[in-house]
Design a protein that fits this description.
This protein is mostly helical and 382 residues long. The protein contains 14 helices and eight strands. Helix 7 packs antiparallel against helix 9.
């Protein structure tokens, strides 16, 4: 019989089970780990090694030939820690902890099948009610871990993942009338925050990039704004209970996101009017030490758009509206792609080009004029 307080006891099947605190769930509940042995001392030795691995921030290696999928998840995530951005690491960690490990972690990789993965995908869609886009991201991460597990375990069967079809939703874009009304509102009692919103509408920069923007990044002489950093609120990975978050200012989303954007004459004049003396100050606050985080800026935008009578507007709406206005003005797509910070013009065309009915009609009329058709040629007797 195990000693009192050790959480080691003999099961009905004759094996010894040792329980230990492995971590904490997002709601603060304890997440336990279990070690098994044929004898009391074998179970105790395993649990001591597991506890030591946690203290030293190392993955616990199960003994024997078979390892559960949760172990491969831990190993894969640890390998990614130094090769990806902190925001990406937090995203991977959250998806593994919240979705993949709770449902698939207990399985041995030798038992994985396409049916098991399909059921996992179905549950995410119809029990968790996650969007197809989110489920596709989770399955892509699962594919990476399975690929790693297959390298470690040659006996693992090949598993093909079927991704759910993603329904493309029409992105909200401001009409010309809505945009003019919103600009007029922003010019009334213009302040640092409204200037940031105007910058987004007139340059298409992302909300995190606006929050990290300092006056040293805006050159009035060259009439440019340089995107160097982005601001995000991320989960604090050092918090074992997973409750704390922190603000992180880091390099932009990708190498193409670090870019120089030309400013129009009107936007340059507005920046010159609003500029503060300290070039190290944040644009949104006018203060070097105090910043405005993305969540707060989003709340401000919500208030502004409500005052204007605009519905369903967020910062990505402004970014898409900027791209649409550029297309309507005849922008060359490669230039627009670089201004938006996309890795490829294909992304700009597929996701950010929203053609209005008026523009489509204008293009049809251009085609008509080019082909020199006349209505009389197609007159039909009734």
């Amino acid at each position: 019989m195990g000693k009192k307080g050790e959480n080691i006891y003999k099961r009905k099947d004759g094996r010894w089970e040792a329980r230990y605190v492995r971590g904490y769930k997002p709601d603060g509940a304890i997440r336990y780990g279990y070690c098994y042995g044929k004898t009391y001392y074998e179970a105790k030795e395993k649990v001591n090694r597991a506890k030591a691995a946690i203290i030293n921030h190392l993955p616990f290696q199960e003994t024997g030939k078979r390892k559960r999928f949760a172990t491969y998840c831990e190993e894969w995530l640890r390998l990614k820690r130094s090769s990806v951005k902190e925001s990406t690491y937090v995203k991977y960690s959250t998806m593994l902890e919240k979705h993949i490990r709770p449902r698939l972690g207990r399985y041995y990789v030798e038992t994985f099948s396409e049916i098991l993965v399909e059921q996992f995908s179905y549950d995410l869609l119809h029990e968790m009610y996650l969007s197809p886009k989110t489920v596709r991201d989770i399955l892509a991460l699962l594919h990476s871990v399975l690929k790693y597990a297959a390298k470690q375990n040659p006996s693992m069967p090949s598993v093909e993942i079927v991704y759910p079809k993603e329904d493309r939703k029409e992105i909200r874009v401001l009409s010309w009338e809505e945009q003019q009304r919103f600009i007029q509102y922003l010019f009334e009692e213009m302040d640092a925050c409204k200037l940031g919103v105007m910058l987004d509408l007139m340059t298409g920069i992302r909300i995190g990039e606006i929050c990290a923007l300092r006056w040293s990044d805006i050159s009035l002489c060259n009439r440019t704004v340089t995107v160097r950093q982005t601001m995000q609120r991320l989960k604090d990975t050092s918090d074992l209970k997973g409750r704390k978050t922190k603000i992180v200012v880091s390099d932009p989303k990708s190498s193409m996101s670090a870019r120089i954007i030309p400013l129009s004459d009107s936007m340059t004049a507005l920046c010159r009017k609003c500029k503060v003396g300290n070039s190290s100050a944040y644009v949104l606050t006018g203060n070097e030490k105090h910043y405005m985080e993305p969540r707060t800026l989003q709340y401000r935008l919500e208030k502004y758009t409500t005052d204007c009578g605009l519905c369903g507007v967020h910062f990505h709406t402004l970014r898409h509206s900027f791209a649409t206005r550029c297309v309507e003005a005849g922008f060359e797509i490669k230039s627009l792609s670089e201004i938006l910070g996309h890795s490829s013009p294909k992304i700009t065309l597929e996701r950010y080009v929203h053609s209005s009915l008026e523009l489509k009609r204008e293009n049809m009329e251009k085609l008509d004029r080019m082909q020199k058709y006349t209505p009389s040629e197609f007159a039909v007797e009734i």
